[in-house]
Amino acid sequence: MTENAPNNPTKIALITGASRGLGAALAEGLAAQGWHIIAVARTTGALEELDDRIRAAGGSATLAPMDVTNPEAMIQLAKSVLGRWGGVDLWAHTAIHAAPLSPAGHIDPRDLAKSLDLNVTAASGLIVLLEPLLRGRDGTGLFFDDPRAGQKFFGAYGATKGAQIALAQSWQAENEKLGPRIEIATPAPMPTALRARFFPGEDRAALSPCKDEALRILAEVLAPKPAA
């Protein structure tokens, strides 16, 4: 991991899938509010560009160019975060694989396997590793719904994204009293590379900018919750 960090950051946000789109917008929005960002993604160049923008705005980040589907890398990440910061205050999981649209009877087994690996298996493994890091700082886990399950041609993406959200909902219910707090947000349609693959030729000017959605979601998630 490469680091640009203050000595005593007050809040730590771990963002998986931070290199572009909503993940990058969340990183920049939180950094502008004084959070230290641990940015995880496979694309080193995009992470470095994110770091440049965060630094230029006076924020701080640690870059972790890692593949979240690599269990050994994620174990090392969790150990490093625990040793350096003792935990995280927010984990936002935006990493996703968008398999090509296809009739259910023609889904490529390789696309389905990759979708399961990233959208379900990796998310489950991260929950196992990060639950104690969140609980130790009374933190929040944040997932993002995209309800495509059952829509035509969205078989691989819809089924695996739906499974990820079902997993997050179970985790949410299980930790209602003990914590960590689990939030599931549904972003408005944004002009992301993922959406462009699904809807080529769409009028992107009509979509909500990633920055606006990130700030809206963060305002809702980070708002103090009423006592039970």
Automatic annotation (TrEMBL):
Query: Is Oxidoreductase found in the keyword set?
Result: yes
Q: Which GO terms describe its molecular function?
A: oxidoreductase activity
| GO cellular component entries | membrane
Q: Does the keyword ATP-binding apply?
A: no
UniProt KW keywords: Oxidoreductase
Q: Which residues form the signal peptide?
A: none
- Return the InterPro entries for the record: NAD(P)-bd_dom_sf, SDR_fam
- Family named by the database record: Belongs to the short-chain dehydrogenases/reductases (SDR) family.
Can you say what this protein is called? Answer: Short-chain dehydrogenase/reductase SDR
